[in-house]
Specification:
Blueprint: H1 3-18, E1 25-27, E2 39-43, E3 49-53, H2 60-79, E4 100-104, E5 107-111, E6 118-121, H3 136-142, H4 144-148, H5 156-163
Antiparallel strand pairs: 1-2, 2-3, 4-5, 5-6
Helix pairs in contact: 1-2
The structure holds zinc ion (ZN).
């Protein structure tokens, strides 16, 4: 696979691992045929396939955000019907939407799509300490509330309840 594409995908694949989501199998299939836009295919064990590509004309942080956005689309498709699809869950609105991959000050970040607040650099979503990286989707389906307590940023409502 193209080095620039591999490099751009590494941070979001790290975040996938941190969430215990099985990463896609990357197939070395340069479907764009464009040397300025290296590409590959992502496949799941369920046969869910999607293309991913980056533009070499873009700076590295934009390639990271773009790759994260494309991998996120694949993940949402992959979780559809099996688990809540809002990955990575917005800690500010955990029931409403996933975060969006954007660029802020030349850094690729996960941000709330509603208020634009940057939550975390892409590739640095924290690993919940008590959570083994297995079958995240099954856990999500079994116990949504417990999983919400594991999000990277403390839920303000939960903190309020605990301090009362
Ligand atoms: Zn939000």
């Amino acid at each position: 696979m193209n080095e620039a594409l591999r490099h751009a995908m590494a941070p979001v694949l790290r975040d996938l691992r941190a969430a215990g989501i099985t990463a896609p199998r990357i197939e070395n299939d340069d479907w764009t045929g464009d040397p300025g836009q290296p590409s590959a295919m992502m496949w799941s064990r369920h046969g869910n396939g999607a293309g991913v590509s980056v533009l070499l004309s873009e700076p590295e942080w934009e390639r990271v955000a773009s790759a994260a956005d494309q991998v996120q689309d694949w993940v949402i498709e992959e979780l559809w019907g099996r688990a809540p699809t809002n990955w990575p869950r917005c800690p500010r609105h955990p029931d409403n939407h996933p975060m969006a991959a954007i660029c802020r000050d030349e850094v690729a970040v996960w941000a709330c799509p509603a208020d634009g607040v940057a939550v975390c650099e892409i590739g640095k979503l924290s690993v919940p300490p008590e959570s083994p990286a297995t079958e995240w989707a099954d856990r999500m389906a079994l116990n949504k509330d417990r999983d919400r307590a594991r999000t990277a940023v403390p839920d303000p409502d939960l903190c309020c309840r605990l301090s009362e």
